[in-house]
Amino acid sequence: MAKINEDLQRERDKCTFKIAELTTLIDGGRDRTDARREREKVLLSRTKDLHGVPEEYLSHKEKYESAIKNSVILFGIVRQMQEEGKTSVTDYRDVITSLLASAQTRDGSPMGVHYIMFMPAILNQGTEEQQAQWMPRAWNSSIIGTYAQTELGHGTFIRGLETTATYDPSTKEFVLNTPTLTSYKWWPGGLGHTVNYCIVVAQLYSKGQCHGIHSFILQVRDEETHAPLPGIKVGDIGAKLGLNSVDNGFLGLDNVRIPRNHMLMKHAQVLEDGTYVKSKNSKLNYGAMVFVRVVIVFDMVNYLSKASTIAVRYSAVRRQCHMKEGAPETQILDYLTQQHKVFISIATTHALRVTANKLWDTFNAVTEELGGGNLNRLPELHALACCLKAVSTADTANCVERCRLACGGHGYMQSSNLPLTYGLVTAACTYEGENTVLLLQTARFLVKTWQNVDTAKLTPTVEYLKITRSKGFIDKWQNSIECIIKGFQIVAMGKISSSVDHMQQRISNGMALEDAWNMTSVQLVSAAEAHCRVIIMSTFYEEINKAMATVSPELRKVLQKLVELYCVYWALEKVGDLLQYAPIAQSDIRDMKSWYEDILVELRPNAVALVDAFDIRDGILHSTLGAYDGRVYERLMEEALKSPLNGEPVNQSFHKYLKPFMQGKL
Amino acid sequence: MAKINEDLQRERDKCTFKIAELTTLIDGGRDRTDARREREKVLLSRTKDLHGVPEEYLSHKEKYESAIKNSVILFGIVRQMQEEGKTSVTDYRDVITSLLASAQTRDGSPMGVHYIMFMPAILNQGTEEQQAQWMPRAWNSSIIGTYAQTELGHGTFIRGLETTATYDPSTKEFVLNTPTLTSYKWWPGGLGHTVNYCIVVAQLYSKGQCHGIHSFILQVRDEETHAPLPGIKVGDIGAKLGLNSVDNGFLGLDNVRIPRNHMLMKHAQVLEDGTYVKSKNSKLNYGAMVFVRVVIVFDMVNYLSKASTIAVRYSAVRRQCHMKEGAPETQILDYLTQQHKVFISIATTHALRVTANKLWDTFNAVTEELGGGNLNRLPELHALACCLKAVSTADTANCVERCRLACGGHGYMQSSNLPLTYGLVTAACTYEGENTVLLLQTARFLVKTWQNVDTAKLTPTVEYLKITRSKGFIDKWQNSIECIIKGFQIVAMGKISSSVDHMQQRISNGMALEDAWNMTSVQLVSAAEAHCRVIIMSTFYEEINKAMATVSPELRKVLQKLVELYCVYWALEKVGDLLQYAPIAQSDIRDMKSWYEDILVELRPNAVALVDAFDIRDGILHSTLGAYDGRVYERLMEEALKSPLNGEPVNQSFHKYLKPFMQGKL
Ligand SMILES: Cc1cc2nc3c(=O)[nH]c(=O)nc-3n(C[C@H](O)[C@H](O)[C@H](O)COP(=O)(O)OP(=O)(O)OC[C@H]3O[C@@H](n4cnc5c(N)ncnc54)[C@H](O)[C@@H]3O)c2cc1C
Ligand SMILES: Cc1cc2nc3c(=O)[nH]c(=O)nc-3n(C[C@H](O)[C@H](O)[C@H](O)COP(=O)(O)OP(=O)(O)OC[C@H]3O[C@@H](n4cnc5c(N)ncnc54)[C@H](O)[C@@H]3O)c2cc1C
């Protein structure tokens, strides 16, 4: 191994806690750390030297081809796990949503949706027979599928989908059609050239009646030749901001027939004669949506741990300007503005991880209750997953860009791996529910809750709405974490309450409910975000407090600071809200700014250790700026030399265009 | 021309002002509109059908080659202008920083820096003789150059550059060297494979003494063969987040000799015997920096006008969900949250344009004064250009992403042209002075000004610092534009003042000045931004008020609303600052929210007309979502079909990898 950059080494030498202890805490146990490292070692050894020219230099088509090559290696591991009997949802999550996956197919995998949506959809919506029919082949990748819901004309508004599935009792088949241009399926990952099956979401017609949207399993390509089946138009939707190694696809259907039992019938059914049997409960599908959204929050944690590792290590290596005349150049990590830019990403990574774990546990608990027929907590869970998905993706996107910009010019290089990371993260702000739309869904739940706050028994995540209203909830402001969390609870309550008032007033002035809702929607979105901030902050605080009991005093101090950083950062960001709703004074704010500055300075000596604890090996981090040894400039140059433009001293365009132009002949 | 989408047509029919009148106002006169349109027509006709596969599908190398092909066409126009005698700075700006340029080389031109920095540097730093020697060849592109300042190890800290130029009196030459890896030049646009000359910034050594950094003209490639000259290592730095058709390059120098008169000697000189003659004033270079930064603000205006055109037109065409059950699906432009996302971009485009024009005029005035030896206004102008560059690029980057996200999934398609636009805009947050560093420079000027506020005569842009301190500056808060601007002046003053206090207190507690500055730097950045917001807001308000006299009553109303939108939007964004420093009450804020909602609703009917007035033709806008006729879905499909992945029904990777994998043979 090459020599470690001296500045980085010094950072590691002076850190005040044991890095391995934090890594264990993050992984959730020593054995889990070991298992993860083992998986990483295996995979990375298999793929060593697989790559030729780095992907960023390839054409769109070549990127796809390279991703297929890499994906089959990655998913070979999933198959192997299955053969070893490791088929629990957690095992599965460990591979699919791990950093490992993001290393193997850096700009996304064409087969990702197979694991994250195709299989879960069959598990959730298929009958036991259907599961028995499809799952074994899906698990071992004999077939590869995607989830085709969105159309050119409709994404958010699922009820507006135009694809039709019309039951024909004479042949016991459904006839699938995309009758208009806007009804073409558009976006499903892997649909373009990879998958041979998909779940199609379509309007079900039987006996001349429309029964709304339902899911169907459709074969799109021949298993042997991979040629599109008759009546099927399928292809790549084209280049995107990111995820360019995923062939998001379009799909047009012209009288394509599938057998009756290809409709997923766990909840609703069409009988042989065409009789439609309704689902018992329309909310049952919430479960699947929640699952995917939790997975997304974990994804965000992964990406953000990468981005912060890169930015922090680079900031320790990069020296620029003299803070003091005559002194050596300053490590940019010593500038308070730089700490302000990057430390929040470390804290956010932990805050989101802790919250995602909690959400995951709640999800599993509720799923068990569902088995027993208890649907009570579904609406709360759904509202929670909506806002957490929205806020975690938005925050992560902001943090990643902040990290990238904090790396100055070199952050703009693809070889930093920050641009690609942003492309992946910002996509999550849109897919699986556009963020504004999701926040409005949470707002709807909050408004309903608020309107019954005096009479209903409140579920855990909204209990604070009642408590904050009691007199003296905050007697006197104190600059403490507890008080800040209380302050945010008051803010969330205040925003919900004043949105409702605002809406009521518009209604009293004669406005229709829907218009009043719309006119209040900017405020409602802000209320839902405030609610979500309460959840993240308080969960982070509580869970870290629980962990305190089991960790060393050294680590305890650092964790405490991370919680402080998160809370004080957001208190200052949202100081306008606190001033409006909580009893905070101008002098408190002045002191809070100093507090914030002090936290940054206190975290400074441990910054590199904190990101080292994320334990992301170079093969996964894939960054010239973030590698463990800090050989930043050497790596930048090594990567540059891989640019195919440097394969020849003079590019052909000189002779063809440039020279004639310069000589005035063009 | 194809049929116009009905929704768009309806928007145009119902607008309340004359679109052409606003276009004229934006261009600065009817004749300028005509001239611009003529230039666009000529260029677009020359390039019709030039493009084969859309650029986003090409490899890194092909992107570069395509950009060279397109650039020579674009810059043929510059040459033609020169031949026609149109060589004023304004003529020049019209082409180089126009939307036109961005249409021709969509992801940046390898020759951009030739026009924006190479030639201006010679004009600014070259003697008359040197100008006579180099400018004619540069103007007509017989030689193409770039500006090579940044090195692998140093960007912000120019004094830290490591490249050396050592004078050898025996041959009357300079010997250039990059003695370390970190001293390699890194980043200059076009340096990789395009240019044959460049300005190199290096530490000047003569008679064994270092005299700091100076600029030299260096030939890097042979004019006939384009081969790198002896001692020169040059190449492409590799793939980037954006600007991938520009070959940003690296440059290593090994004892490369250039004649003495290749040092640009307008300000400082090295005589034949090696005697160094110092520049009269170190601030003289500010002029060039200000020029480039003003050009950047104009760039931002262009990009933002594009992004808002795309987002607004698409929002008029896109229908999603029913606001009211039974009604037709809602144009998403009718959702208040959507208006909140996109209208601010329209207002910001105008605010920045008006401010950039003002800055441009000031720049020209000060340049004239410079001719007369008057340097008084340079520091102010420099501070102004720093913060305007920083705030305009940051705001534009945020607005462009906001516009993109507002287009939902389709905004993520390259064919929307929003991703590329973001890549260009966010680069400007870093180049020509990293934004944080620039804001700290403005802060330094503000702190100095503040420390002499009672005694010095204040220059125009900071006069408010004195006035705001007078008692009763705001007697009672009113929700009016005038009061909001005053409120922001108080905020800026308050932030500067409390930063200074904060710093003083740390110093009194025994901290060194530099450390106290650093500990206050987060607050200082925020103060500089607040100052800049005052400048933009008040300039926008004043200049639009001046324009009021000359425009029709219909247009007047709309312009008034745009100013309101800008001010109220920022008042609500910065409500925490207003609450801390200005006498605003909670009820004022409540009313202000309603005011904001009302402004959005009032602007709604004119939204499409407002972006139509930017008058960006389809060939320049280059967007499936934003085209004039609103054929969004047709265009998305047409573009998708151009993806080379769709050239064959089954991709080769199926046979190579996917099939063996699915059949368990891999
Ligand atoms: C990278 C990527 C991968 C994807 N993968 C898949 C996949 O595998 N399978 C699949 O089926 N789909 C997929 N999608 C599609 C994705 O699910 C949709 O893009 C997403 O649901 C957003 O819907 P939309 O595009 O219709 O946005 P729109 O709804 O058109 O959003 C546009 C704007 O309208 C606003 N808006 C819309 N409705 C309302 C409302 N009621 N109130 C207020 N504002 C509103 C939004 O806030 C937004 O600002 C993918 C998308 C992307 C970008
Ligand atoms: C697309 C692009 C094109 C370019 N084109 C050219 C070109 O044609 N010619 C050329 O010569 N150069 C060019 N550059 C280089 C560009 O000018 C530099 O990248 C820019 O000046 C920023 O410097 P840096 O990269 O050293 O950032 P750094 O200074 O390393 O910034 C990294 C971080 O350190 C912080 N920091 C640095 N100094 C301080 C300080 N004193 N106080 C507080 N914080 C500090 C910054 O705020 C930032 O967060 C280009 C860059 C890009 C991205």
Automatic annotation (TrEMBL), chains A, B:
What does the entry list under GO cellular component? peroxisome
Cofactor(s) of this protein = FAD
Question: Which Pfam family, just one, is annotated for this protein?
Answer: ACOX
Q: In which pathway does it act?
A: Lipid metabolism; peroxisomal fatty acid beta-oxidation
List of residues binding FAD: 150, 189
Please give the InterPro entries that the UniProt record associates with this protein: ACOX_C_alpha1, Acyl-CoA_ox_N, Acyl-CoA_Oxase/DH_mid-dom_sf, Acyl-CoA_oxidase, Acyl-CoA_oxidase_C, AcylCo_DH-like_C, AcylCoA_DH/ox_N_sf, AcylCoA_DH/oxidase_NM_dom_sf
Which residue numbers delimit the Acyl-CoA oxidase C-terminal domain? Answer: 481-663
Q: Which UniProt keywords apply?
A: FAD, Fatty acid metabolism, Flavoprotein, Lipid metabolism, Oxidoreductase, Peroxisome
Give the Acyl-CoA oxidase C-alpha1 domain ranges.
286-447
Q: Name one GO molecular function term.
A: acyl-CoA oxidase activity
Q: What is this protein called?
A: Acyl-coenzyme A oxidase
